[in-house]
Write a structure and sequence with these properties.
By secondary structure, the protein is mainly alpha-helical. The protein has one domain. Helix content is 64%, strand content 5%. α2 crosses α4.
Amino acid sequence: MAAADPPIAACQLLCRSAVAIGRRMDDSISATILRVLERAPQWIRHDLEAKDDAIRARAEETLAAMIANALQTGTSASPEA
């Protein structure tokens, strides 16, 4: 299995620990977030490592929207899929 990109690996570690902001995450929420992270497009992975704040912020906001959508709809599939 190939190593994950550093920002994605960090997020996956957070989800696997099932602890966020001092409280235990529900297993289904953790699994949904992991699915979104695993399906994140390459441009998001690349831009999360950008030194330019605007580029990195765009990727963070996009990933946050993808996670919020998946949690709201109960699926990690993107709308265009």
